[in-house]
């Protein structure tokens, strides 16, 4: 008798955001006992927020492990378990984690949004403060309570102007096989208030089933890419006359690229170029390309022929810092020594590998 278990293998890379675009491996030293994988939520001032992946419950034994890690100084902090859900809501339908920074108090905050499984539309928000090393429950406010029905929040890792952002889908669209995104939700890290932001207008010629926007930052402004593959349109949220008035402005319209089966816009580089993850139509190998929107030219960054079963899973812009060296907190040195973090863009890739367990003699065979 044989039983197959799927295990997720991951690799991490650092990309130097300069004219050389050197891609180097990065060692992530953490292991999770309850999860096969972990996710890089975002990075701020050299701190990388990492959380477990998958559905979690409110029980402390199975709480989602969250770590703040500074690879430059090789120190990390494991956050305490967040509080349980309300009575009668022992299990969470989903958990979404975001990371932010409050400059006036020099405080890093982690926001966890959870949806109760047994009460339709029930959302609970908790905020962790690094300064106090505690969790507090915060009111989701009218922005989260209006609209009716279940809403699923997808973390974006986009932190700008003191706010973090989630993409939101409506449950009745998910049930018929379509993910229709209704809006963005923002959270002001200083005032701890939620607000609703309308998405840019959809292309009427595009099939609604393929509308899966990606939220990113371009030149320290919030941007929405209306499709994960080319062709796509990039919208930027720009300030209007008043200090609190913003509107969406079309920034780029990107056309398909010849000989490329698919191309995902993943990261905006500091020189104005975009990093693409591409799949050539004659090859199973995925490659990184740098796209210059003005000339519409692509430059091959690195071919990953030995990694054709790996796909990009998370990409974050990373800057070195000395955070955790000057704080009176218990920052732990990583068990392993990660490689130098001189790169600006951090790339995580993952691949599924099959592991066969033979119960007859308990021999384990790994592929």
TrEMBL record:
Q: Tell me any Pfam family this protein matches.
A: FBA_1
Q: List the SUPFAM superfamilies hit by this protein, alphabetically.
A: Galactose oxidase, central domain (SSF50965)
Q: Which InterPro entries match?
A: F-box-assoc_dom_typ1, F-box-assoc_interact_dom, Gal_Oxase/kelch_b-propeller, Kelch-typ_b-propeller, SCF_F-box_component
**Superkingdom classification of source:** Eukaryota
Residue ranges constituting the F-box associated beta-propeller type domain according to the UniProt record: 66-281
Give the PANTHER family listed for this entry: BNACNNG10540D PROTEIN, F-BOX PROTEIN CPR30-LIKE
Q: Which NCBIfam families match?
A: F_box_assoc_1
Stated name of the protein: F-box associated beta-propeller type 1 domain-containing protein
Q: Which organism is it from?
A: Striga hermonthica (Purple witchweed)
Q: What is the lineage of its organism?
A: Eukaryota, Viridiplantae, Streptophyta, Embryophyta, Tracheophyta
């Amino acid at each position: 008798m044989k039983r197959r278990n799927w295990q997720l293998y991951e690799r991490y890379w650092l990309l130097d955001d300069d004219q050389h675009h050197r891609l180097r491996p990065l060692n992530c030293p953490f292991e999770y006992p309850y999860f096969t994988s972990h996710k890089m939520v975002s990075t701020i001032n050299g701190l990388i927020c990492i959380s477990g992946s998958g559905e979690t419950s409110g029980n402390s034994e199975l709480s989602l492990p969250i770590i703040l890690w500074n690879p430059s100084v090789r120190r990390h902090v494991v956050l305490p378990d967040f509080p349980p859900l309300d009575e009668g809501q022992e299990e969470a339908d989903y958990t979404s984690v975001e990371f932010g920074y409050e400059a006036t108090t020099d405080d890093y905050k982690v926001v966890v949004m959870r949806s109760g499984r047994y009460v339709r539309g029930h959302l609970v928000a908790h905020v962790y403060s690094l300064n106090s090393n505690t969790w507090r429950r915060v009111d989701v406010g009218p922005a989260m309570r209006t609209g009716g029905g279940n809403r699923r929040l997808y973390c974006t890792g986009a932190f700008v102007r003191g706010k973090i952002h989630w993409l939101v889908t409506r449950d009745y669209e998910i049930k018929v096989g379509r993910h229709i995104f209704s809006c963005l939700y923002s959270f002001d890290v200083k005032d701890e208030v939620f607000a609703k932001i309308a998405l840019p207008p959809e292309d009427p010629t595009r099939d609604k089933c393929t509308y899966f926007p990606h939220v990113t930052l371009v030149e320290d402004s919030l941007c929405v890419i209306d499709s994960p593959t080319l062709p796509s349109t990039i919208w930027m949220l720009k300030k209007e006359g008043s200090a609190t008035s913003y509107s969406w402005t079309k920034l780029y319209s990107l056309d398909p690229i010849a000989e490329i089966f698919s191309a995902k816009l993943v990261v905006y580089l500091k020189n104005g170029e975009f990093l693409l993850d591409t799949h050539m139509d004659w090859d199973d190998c995925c490659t990184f390309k740098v796209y210059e929107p003005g000339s519409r030219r692509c430059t091959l960054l690195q071919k990953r022929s030995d990694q054709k079963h790996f796909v990009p899973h998370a990409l974050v812009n990373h800057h070195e810092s000395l955070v955790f060296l000057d704080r009176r907190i218990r920052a732990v040195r990583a068990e392993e020594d990660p490689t130098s973090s001189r790169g600006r863009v951090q790339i995580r890739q993952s691949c599924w590998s099959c592991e066969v367990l033979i119960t007859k003699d308990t021999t384990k065979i790994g592929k």
